[in-house]
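User: These chains co-purify. Model them together.
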Amino acid sequence: MIEIHAVTVRFGGLVALNEVSATLTAPVAGIIGPNGAGKTTLMNVVSGFITAHSGRVMIEAQDFLSLAPHKRAQKGLRRSFQKGQIADDLTVLENVLVQTDWSLTGAHAKRAEAMEMLDVVGLADRAGKIGAALSGFERRLTDVARCMVGQPRLIMFDEPAGGLSVEETQRLGDLVLQIHGLIGAQTVIIDHDVDLISRICAETLVLDFGRRIAFGPTAEVLADPRVKAAYLGTEEIVP
Amino acid sequence: MDRSLFHITPSGAAGLIFSALCFVFLPMLAGSYWLSIFTSTAIFALAISGVAFMYARLGMVSLTQVGLMGVGGWLTLRLNYLWDMPFEVNMLCAALATMIFGWILALPALRMRGLYLALVTLMAAGGLEILFATYQFPNGGEGVWGVKTGSGEAFRRPLLAQTPEAYLRYCIVIATLGFLFIEGHRRLFPGRAWALIRRSEAAAMAAGVNVTLYKTWAFGIAGAIAGASGALLAGSLGLLDDGTFRSSESIMLFALAVVGGARFWLGVVIAAVLFRVLPGLLNTWGVDTDLAFVIFGAGLLHALITAPNGIAGQIHDLVAKLTGRGANP
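Assistant: Joint model of the two components:
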């Protein structure tokens, strides 16, 4: 469970997030909003790359805002980036192993877990392939496997379906739906693909201009006139 | 691709065979002039491996390597005249001291990248150059600085390497061990962390990598290697002078690492050969050795325009094309 309490972020005079609060409890939750709504900023606050001006973020009752980004990762927070960050000169397996290298668990156990997660995402047979030789979807799947190792508590995906085909998005959605059952982690997804969000997210937070405009069960949220207005705009009658 | 610690890749096997051939044949074939040049080449290959490692693995440009060699050389000479300890102990002390120096240097440099990091390290090299010119290198004199006028005291070489031939072999072994030390790191968790840091510091932090720790670690390794190289240089010559450790030499080492190919062991060897053997050849042919700078400049231009992985990268690509296998540094 992730609790976001009155998080405010300012960049000079611009208020990127304005007193945003939400308690995400569903195994798979979504954050949507138009471009510039503050979705990635919120993810950056949670993962420690942006310091909030005020507010609190609790993950399973633990305050995360006081921790450095790498410490948050070690405490079970995972995140992906819009542009897949796979090291080109590491193999797929090494790209996954790096997530648990800090841990004192035995090397064999870490390797076995990494291989298990690569099997889950369907990349076990390409574990020895170097990052530079991967397709865009394989890079994304490697990212997902990396987020799944090391017993994470919360996984955040930033626009994971960006640049993927319909079939690949479908497969990715199926994979995300399996995460909670497999490793018990909660997943939060930011995406513009409303079809994907409505299919896999039980609850959704909608942001617009740094403010929360809706939050609740995804179907209800997507039917909210304010959400429709934020996405599609309001009708303007020219006299 | 198998990258377990003890797996020998074709490229690695070629490197070990090359090292063994050098170990056996170079001292047998070379006269005193070339013995001295090959010894210096092996020593600078070790020093360049530190610069190349920083650049290839972390994308960081360190221009203090020759200055740190000077620190290692100074400490080795000082310890040699101060106490009756074996050369290896003095070399280890020098490497440890320059490793710590590397960490200290890393502290202000950690928040910098690219040109700014290069400038900070170059300034440190400039500072060391001034210190070397002011205080000179110990030669058996009294006091903290250990400098005396006239001829210096004798320097104790390693017990295993009393002759110039044996010392060349000794330097080849130490350089090979240095290469293996770096390769071992590359294959284990520090190598994975460095690769991700190079890709994106944010991604590395998100993966739980302590970026500060691993960058400092890298600076420490490069520093230790520079210190050991400086110790070997002191052992080779028995005395050192400040002219060897100019900051411009650090720039030259980095440029040649780029020309040779920083990602490959062969690139480091090519860089060392260009740095030491080429001027020696020009000298033998009666040509002005400054011509080497023109050749270096042309090589750098070639690397920047057509060969981002240097000459060694081109050789690896060619071998991969001929054998139908992927190039592996």
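The CA atoms of residues 42 and 116 of chain B lie 30 Å apart.
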